[in-house]
Every structure is written in C-alpha cells, then in structure tokens.
C-alpha cells in the first residue's frame, strides 16, 4: 500500500497525537512498512482494514512508544491488548452514609431537632430546681461562694459578666452615681425616672454612650423591659419632697414596687429594693440591727415614707416566698455627696447650702440628735455587692460613725467658713433622736464597710454645691 502522509492532520489541539504520529512516521521510514499498519493503536480513528489474506505482525515498540503506553494520558488501548479486569465498586464509607442522610433525610433531622429543643425547654425548670441550693433562684454555672474560702463568695479582682440593668430613679442623687459605676464595669443601663426629684443633668454625660438609655416614666404605671437586674430606687427620699405630696410618695412605694416586682417575676430578673433606716422609726434599740422591728408612728407626717418602705419590704419578701423572685433588700442610712438637691431638706445639704450662701445654719431642737453619715460612693459599692451576693437581706448600709447635729455644724464651718453662724428652731414632729446602723451583717456576709470619712467626703460635696450655687 502506498505510504500515507499525515502532515496536514497535525494540530496544536492534540500535542500527544502529534508526538505519536511523528514516532510512527519514523518507524515506517526505518522498517519500510506502510504507516497505515500502525494505525490500529488509534481505535478511535476510522481506518482501512487490512486484506484478509495478510495479517501484519504487531509493530515493535520503541522506548518512546513504551513510555507513551505507560503514560496515564495515552489514547485508548488497541484492540489486541488484553482486556483490563473490571474493578468492583468501592464500598460506601461513613462519609458517604452521612452525606446520604443529610441529603435524603432532612425532614427526619428537622423533627429530631425540634423534639430535642422542646424537651429541653419543658425540663429546664426541673433541672434548675434540682441543681440549685436555693429552689427559688437559679444557680450560676460556677458558684464562687461554694468554691472559695472568702466569706464574700467572689474572689478579689473578679468582674461579673456584662448585664442589662434597669435603675428606677436613676437620674436622682444616689441613682446617678450607681449608673456611673454600672456603666464603668461594662453593663448596659436603662434609667427610668419621672424627674420629680431627679435631674437630667445628673446623667447628661452618658447620653452619647451606646450602652445607656434614658426613659421618662413613672413606676406607678407598669412597664415592660428585658433586663437581668432591677435596682429599684424610685421614691422621694427627702422630708421636703415626701411631705409635699404624701399620697404620691406612698403610691410610689407600694404601686411602684409592685410593678417592678411583677416585671422581675415575668422576665426572671434579680430585684433589689432600696429601703431606708426610717423603717426603724424613732428606735428604742441603739445601734439598730436588721432584726429590730422598729418603733414607727403609722399616722405621723413622715409615715407616708416610713410605712411605705415597710410595705415595700413586705411585698418584696412575699414575691420571693410566693413567686420565686430573686430579691435583695438594702436599708440605707443618711447619705451625702455631689448631686444632692440644693433644697433637699436633709441636714447635710441644708448646712452646706446655708453656709455657702452666708445664711445661718438651722439646727432643730437642742442639736443633740445623732445621725450617721456615709459618702455616696460607699453606698453604691454596698448596693452592688448586695446585688451580686447570694444573700437576700435586709442589710444595713451606713457609716457607723455617729455625730450630733451640733458636731456636724462645726465640721461644716471648718470646711466652708469658720465665721458661719448657727440658728436654733423648734424640733419637727416625729424626728428620730438617734440613728446609727449596726453593719456587722454586711461586713461578714458582703465583705463591705464604708471607707470615706465625713472629713474626707464633705469637701467633695462642697465643691459640687459651690459650683451649682454660683451658677444660680
């Protein structure tokens, strides 16, 4: 047969075909055999069959041809090559089964997940009640009180995780300082205040803070919030204010506390009530312990505040015993510091404002009544320690240092103006003769005690009052 030239069949798209054609052409020229005899290796090409009377022997393979046949990219094997063994299908592994289940059994997985979630939420109250030492309160994942020799329960330097906190009365004197500390430790804070005694100026420096919210609302009306902690401070605390509107005062103490306790029960939040040393009335026990039931006039001019706070404590304990609400009760003694109202009516603010305005300091009665005075930062530290403790209370939070009214007037004179004068007036009705806290319980269980003395804290208050009085 005449030799066939395939020079025109070469193409750049098939480099392997080109290489093999070059090798076959060289072999045909060397052996004198027609090139068509070697084309049987290209089973995918149409070619002319050999005459039936002549069967050419298979061509000898050069090393290059052997290399091509060994290459994984060579063309399909010739017809005379032995048939390869049929490989058995691979047995499906675990990944294949997982893929099949995820692909074909999606509905089964959805139903199984829904069943697990439903079971968890149904059994959750029982799991918490079994694991908690106190059946009315959820136990934390790790209880520091149970694993620490420190009587306070929380190791030094431990900072609780950030929480969402509401402070009723948060624009007031004590509330605004509490808000400062809560934001400082990383909590998100919602202030609820009707601004009856609170001032926006007390919290204005937080208005640009994304973790701070200010709501104008009266706690006498219900409110729905989603929080972890409730500090209930809302109530007029000055004799001037609660004598001005006694009905509003007792409604705030009773209805406001009732609404906030109801909120705590609905959302599972911890609730702290700021009560007062006024629940002891004109005490017959001195100093006053938390176990003392008090000596209160229920129909006096101060009873709207005194009896209102006693009722608030009763409601708080009833919600704890009957509703399972986690509660804390703090009985606050006389507190002073920056941001007090200039016309607050309490003795420290009265003396400071009168001395700065060059007015005589008013002493009611003979001036031998005694009070104890704590700086506001000490009180805030006590409230936060109580809230994060595992103890319900009540706890006395005050400074056991005791001063007569005349001694206090002398300290104010030394701090502001030694030339200030004192004016005596008749004593007011139901004014307690003695007031001094026994803080043994707070020391032992909370690890708390006041640190700022009157002579250290009073100048800080005077600086704030002087600036505000000059701006009048």
Summary keywords:
472 residues, alpha/beta, Rossmann fold, seven-stranded parallel beta sheet, two-stranded parallel sheet, 13 strands, 39% helix, elongated, decarboxylase, NAD(P)-bd_dom_sf, UDP-glucuronate decarboxylase, EC 4.1.1.35
Report on the architecture of this protein:
The chain is 39% helix and 11% strand. By secondary structure, the protein is an alpha/beta fold. It has two domains: 64 residues, no CATH class; 308 residues, Rossmann fold (3-Layer(aba) Sandwich). The strands form four sheets. A seven-stranded parallel sheet has the order 3-2-1-4-5-6-11, sandwiched between helices. The protein has a two-stranded parallel sheet with strand order 7-10. Strand 1, helix 6 and strand 2 form a beta-alpha-beta unit. The N terminus is likely disordered.
Topology (elements, then pairings):
Layout lengths: L14 H17 L31 H8 L23 H11 L1 H26 L12 H4 L16 E5 L4 H12 L3 E6 L18 E5 L12 E4 L6 H6 L1 H22 L2 E7 L26 H21 L3 E6 L2 E2 L10 H10 L4 E4 L5 E3 L1 E2 H12 L7 E3 L4 E3 H11 L6 E4 L14 H7 L7 H17 L2
Parallel strand pairs: 1-2, 1-4, 2-3, 4-5, 5-6, 6-11, 7-10, 8-13
Antiparallel strand pairs: 9-12
Helix pairs in contact: 6-11, 8-9, 10-12
Pfam family, one: GDP_Man_Dehyd
Protein name: UDP-glucuronate decarboxylase
EC number: 4.1.1.35
Give the amount of beta strand, in percent. 5-15%
- Summed up, the helix count is 14
Order of helices and strands: HHHHHEHEEEHHEHEEHEEEHEEHEHH
| CATH class descriptor name of the largest domain | Alpha Beta
Characterize the overall form: elongated
**Mean pLDDT across all residues, rounded?**
80
- Write down how many β-strands occur, each being a DSSP E stretch of 2 or more residues: 13
Family: Belongs to the NAD(P)-dependent epimerase/dehydratase family. UDP-glucuronic acid decarboxylase subfamily.
Domain NAD(P)-binding: 167-459
Keywords: Decarboxylase, Golgi apparatus, Lyase, Membrane, NAD, Transmembrane, Transmembrane helix
Enzyme class: lyase
């Amino acid at each position: 047969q005449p030799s066939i030239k395939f020079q025109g069949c070469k193409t750049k798209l098939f480099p392997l075909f080109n290489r093999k054609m070059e090798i076959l052409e060289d072999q045909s020229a060397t052996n004198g055999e027609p090139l068509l005899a070697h084309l049987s290796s290209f089973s995918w090409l149409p070619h002319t069959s050999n005459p039936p009377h002549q069967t050419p022997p298979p061509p000898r393979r050069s090393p290059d041809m052997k290399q091509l046949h060994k290459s994984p990219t060579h063309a399909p094997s010739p017809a005379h090559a032995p048939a390869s063994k049929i490989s058995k299908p691979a047995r499906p592994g675990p990944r294949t089964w997982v893929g099949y289940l995820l692909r074909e059994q999606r509905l089964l997985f959805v139903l199984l997940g829904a069943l697990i979630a439903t079971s968890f939420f149904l059994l959750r109250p029982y799991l918490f009640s079994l694991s908690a030492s106190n059946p009315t309160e959820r136990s934390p994942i790790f209880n520091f009180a149970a694993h620490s020799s420190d009587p306070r329960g929380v190791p030094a330097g431990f900072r609780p995780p950030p929480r969402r906190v509401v402070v009723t009365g948060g624009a007031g004197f004590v509330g605004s300082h509490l808000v400062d500390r809560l934001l400082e430790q990383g909590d998100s804070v919602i202030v609820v205040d009707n601004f009856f005694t609170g001032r926006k100026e007390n919290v204005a420096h937080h208005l640009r803070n994304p973790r701070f919210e200010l709501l104008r609302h009266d706690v006498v009306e219900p409110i729905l919030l989603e929080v972890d902690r409730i500090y209930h401070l809302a109530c007029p605390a000055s004799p001037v204010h609660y004598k001005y509107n006694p009905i509003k005062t007792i409604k705030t103490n009773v209805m406001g506390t009732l609404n906030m306790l109801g909120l705590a029960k609905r959302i599972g939040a911890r609730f702290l009530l700021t009560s007062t040393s006024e629940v002891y009335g004109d005490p017959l026990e001195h100093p006053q312990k938390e176990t003392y039931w008090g000596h209160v006039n229920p129909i006096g001019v101060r009873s709207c505040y005194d009896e209102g706070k006693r009722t608030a404590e009763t409601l708080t304990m009833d919600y704890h015993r009957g509703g399972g609400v986690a509660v804390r009760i703090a009985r606050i003694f006389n507190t002073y510091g920056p941001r007090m109202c200039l016309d607050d009516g309490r003795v420290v603010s009265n003396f400071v404002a009168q001395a700065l305005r060059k007015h005589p300091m008013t002493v009611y009665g003979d001036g031998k009544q005694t009070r104890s005075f704590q700086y506001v930062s000490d009180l805030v530290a006590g409230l936060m320690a109580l809230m994060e403790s595992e103890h319900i209370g009540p706890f006395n939070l005050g400074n056991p240092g005791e001063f007569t009214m005349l001694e206090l007037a002398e300290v104010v004179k030394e701090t502001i103006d030694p030339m200030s004068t004192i004016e005596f007036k008749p004593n007011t009705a139901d004014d307690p003769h003695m007031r001094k806290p026994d803080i043994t319980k707070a020391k032992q269980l909370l690890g708390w005690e006041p640190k700022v003395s009157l002579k250290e804290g009073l100048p800080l208050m005077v600086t704030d009052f002087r600036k505000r009085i000059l701006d009048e």
